[in-house]
Amino acid sequence: MNLLRTLAMGFPLPDEEWEAHNAEIDMLVDSNLNRIATVYFLENLITMNKYPSAKVLEHYDHLTQDVKNSYPGMLLKEKFDILRQTSVGGIAPDIDLPDVDGNHVTLYSLRGKYVLVDFWASWCRPCREEIPNLKMIYEKYKNQGFEIYSVSLDDKRESWIAAITELDLPWIHVSSLKGWDCPVAKHYNVTGVPKMFLLDPEGKVVAIDLRGEDLEKKVNSFFNI
């Protein structure tokens, strides 16, 4: 099965193959900018969350006007308008969800601080593995204008609360308790956890999915200019 059929049908490539195929994907899209089928192809690229979102947006911008004005094209535009908000350089959409006490805490209430929006879940092993690093960064920078806003994709309140208590997580926690049906996760195009968005004091996305030492270095750069 060739690359076009593989991706158009939603069959994922192994992680190690994506970068090797980037140039082929670019040429494939560029040679079919006048075809409505390319709309579905780009949508699959976004859904699979492997190909750089900035490149997908660039390809969409180059589609012919007829394709953009088609019904599938207009539906894709709505998705891409949201994607632009959650890509580096975009202004992250507000989030309004209840915390562990049932009080709503909005993301926009944290304007003026650098904020790490952290999508996670109690059952997520990679999320738990990153916790020691997050706790180190939080303790180091919380008094300098840094905050963590964790959005849980749990669907059971007991599991969510137990994980926060067990791991001793001192920052802001919110959840819709709807699991993968969380409207915020869908709005942010979260298809896997952990998923992290680092925001500046104006709410602009400055980095996505930094972890470990890379995340600490980026946060440190904000306060040691």
Largest beta sheet, briefly? 5 strands, mixed
Strand order of the largest sheet: 5-4-3-6-7
Q: Percent range for helical residues?
A: 40-55%
What's the gyration radius in Å? 19 Å
Helical stretch tally: 10
Terminal Cα span: 51 Å
Stretches where pLDDT is under 50 for at least 5 consecutive residues are: none
Shape: globular
* Strand composition percent: 5-15%
| H/E element sequence | HHHHHHEEEHEHEHEEH
User: How would you classify the helix and strand content by structural class?
Assistant: alpha/beta
Quick check: average pLDDT?
Answer: 90
- Beta-strand segment tally: 7
Q: Would you give an account of this structure?
A:
The protein is of the alpha/beta class. Helices cover 48% and strands 15% of the residues. A 5-stranded mixed β-sheet has the order 5-4-3-6-7, with helices on one face. A two-stranded antiparallel sheet has the order 1-2. Strand 3, helix 7 (125-141) and strand 4 (146-152) form a beta-alpha-beta unit. Helix 3 (37-48) runs antiparallel to helix 4 and helix 4 crosses helix 6. The longest helix is centred in the middle third of the chain and has 17 residues, at 125-141. The chain is globular and about 55 Å long. The termini are far apart. The relative contact order is 0.13.
Quick overview of this protein structure:
The protein is an alpha/beta fold and 225 residues long. It has 10 helices and 7 strands.
